[in-house]
Write a structure and sequence with these properties.
It is built from 18 helices and four strands. By secondary structure, it is mainly alpha-helical. A hairpin with a 2-residue loop joins strand 1 and strand 2. It is elongated, with a radius of gyration of 31 Å. The two termini are 58 Å apart. The model has no long low-confidence stretch (mean pLDDT 96). The structure holds arginine. The site of arginine has 10 residues, from helix 6. The site of arginine (ARG) has 10 residues, from helix 6.
């Protein structure tokens, strides 16, 4: 190539592109993965062309037969992807035209602009379905560990300081909530992807008598009642990259969630915490220090979240300054979207695998949660029940904590006379609050870590994600 003019758009050119420009401008190296969607689009588009009388039955049959052959060549890795033909669309068209010259009519009434927009929407529908199924597996694996560890308690933290006791189940169910919001996000995205832009042409539709609803139906762009869904502005349809941004965002939020759970697990797994043991299969050792077992899967998940968030930033930066409609910048949008998808696909499986193999070290958890200081708030609540205003109760318990620190004793062992000096209402049975069962059983409200609530939530989520 190089000197000859380009085969598909070269009519108005006297010289072909420079070798460097070919290398610079090609996208087939990364967009060839759109091939299954591009072939589906070719099938539907040509069926429509025949339906409106722009292709004969014989031409349609020849094209569809050829598409089958190309499909098989691609599946067998036998199609020779040629960067000189720029992208997946032109590679498929060129290869097809060689075996079925009738395919010279295939690009009637369409442009690569509406074609790539349509391929992408099919890709997003597929990607959302795949991610939704992986999220389901992940949820199941978190729910199982939560269920097994309902009776194990650990300190919950704010500012990474021990705050109040929670059950492991309650802590893990917080992540089930987060990932279920991801599920909702990807479901919405699937629905938003379900509109067919084909027929928008390069920018202003076509003068030919096409049937957009026909193509939309063929490609499954239909509502719940089977009614076709087609986009309603040809300029927006080819310029719009909202789905790319939304997909990038949904991936970035999901990655943020798995980064946070990873961070928790990394802490829990440290020698200092010692709450969990991680499965060997998802850890690695040190090449120097023989004693090490590092939580690599969790660290990589945390690291990859940075990359996935970065992809979103790239997409926004790419789109924000573009005038309507299609600009070649947009060819780059696939790199980030594919990368985020591939990484999310890997990450969700690695997270599910690691969580499934996590074991809680009950003795260490019991020790950590036995700190009576964790129930200081419960003591303030107890004082409130004795008629003390919360602010005074908070102040009094604060003084108790200070006294315990001074005497170097646990909070529940502050001598009675000191307690009464601090607050006259600290008579009676105040030490009864330092009992974990009491602490949990009194937390009955929706969303609290009491055992009845945990059972209810586990039930609810098990129904949603089928254990
Ligand atoms: N490979 C191109 C892309 O992904 C297809 C659209 C090309 N359109 C054009 N006018 N050059 O953006």
């Amino acid at each position: 190539m190089g000197k000859k003019s380009q085969a598909t758009w070269g009519g108005r050119f006297s010289k072909g592109p420079a070798e460097l420009m070919l290398t610079f401008g090609e996208s087939v190296s990364f967009d060839k993965r759109l091939a299954p969607f591009d072939i589906a689009v070719n099938r539907a588009h040509t069926a429509m062309l025949h339906h409106v009388g722009l292709l004969t039955r014989r031409e349609l049959q020849a094209i569809h037969k050829g598409l089958k052959i190309i499909e098989k060549q691609i599946a067998d890795g036998k199609l020779n992807w040629n960067p000189a033909f720029e992208d997946v669309h032109m590679n498929i068209e060129q290869a097809l035209t060689k075996i079925a010259p009738e395919a010279a009519k295939m690009h009637t009434a369409r442009s690569r602009n509406d074609q790539v927009a349509t391929d992408s929407r099919l890709f997003f529908k597929y990607a959302c379905e795949r991610i939704l199924s992986l999220l389901q597996t992940l949820q199941k694996s978190i729910l199982k560990v939560a269920e097994t560890n309902q009776s194990v308690s650990i300190p919950g933290y704010t500012h990474l300081q021990r705050a109040q006791p929670v059950s492991v189940a309650h802590h893990l169910l917080a992540y089930v909530e987060m990932f279920s919001r991801d599920v909702n996000r990807f479901k919405r995205l699937h629905d938003d992807s379900n509109w067919c832009p084909l027929g928008s042409g390069a920018i202003a539709g076509t003068t030919l008598p096409i049937d957009r609803e026909f193509t939309a139906k063929e490609l499954g762009f239909v509502d719940a009642k089977g009614k076709p869904r087609v986009t309603t502005n040809s300029m927006d349809a080819v310029a719009d990259r909202d789905l790319f941004l939304d997909f990038g965002h949904a991936c970035a939020t999901c990655a943020t969630h798995f980064s946070r759970i990873s961070e928790d697990v990394i802490f829990w797994n440290s020698t200092e915490f010692g709450y969990v043991n991680l499965p060997d299969a998802f850890c690695t050792g040190s090449s120097l220090m023989p004693q090490k077992k590092n939580p690599d899967s969790m660290e990589l998940l945390r690291g990859k979240s940075g990359r996935i968030i970065g992809n979103l930033q790239s997409l926004y930066t790419m789109v924000k300054g573009l005038p309507l409609t299609y600009n070649r910048d947009l060819q780059e949008d696939k790199v980030q979207v594919f990368d985020s998808f591939d990484q999310i696909e890997l990450c969700l499986q690695v997270l599910a695998g690691t969580i499934a193999g996590i074991r809680f070290n009950k003795a260490r958890c019991k020790d950590a949660v036995a700190d009576p200081g964790l129930l200081a708030t419960d003591l303030a609540d107890w004082l409130v029940e004795q008629g003390v205003a919360f602010r005074d109760a908070h102040h009094g318990v604060g003084a108790m904590v200070a006294r315990a620190e001074e005497l170097k004793i646990p909070l529940n062992q502050v001598p009675q006379k000191d307690a009464e000096t601090i607050h006259p209402k600290l008579k009676g049975e105040w030490r009864c609050v330092f009992d974990l069962d009491r602490a949990f059983n009194s937390r009955k409200g929706t969303g609290m870590p009491g055992p009845e609530q945990i059972k209810r939530q586990l039930n609810r989520w098990n129904k949603a994600y089928g254990s």
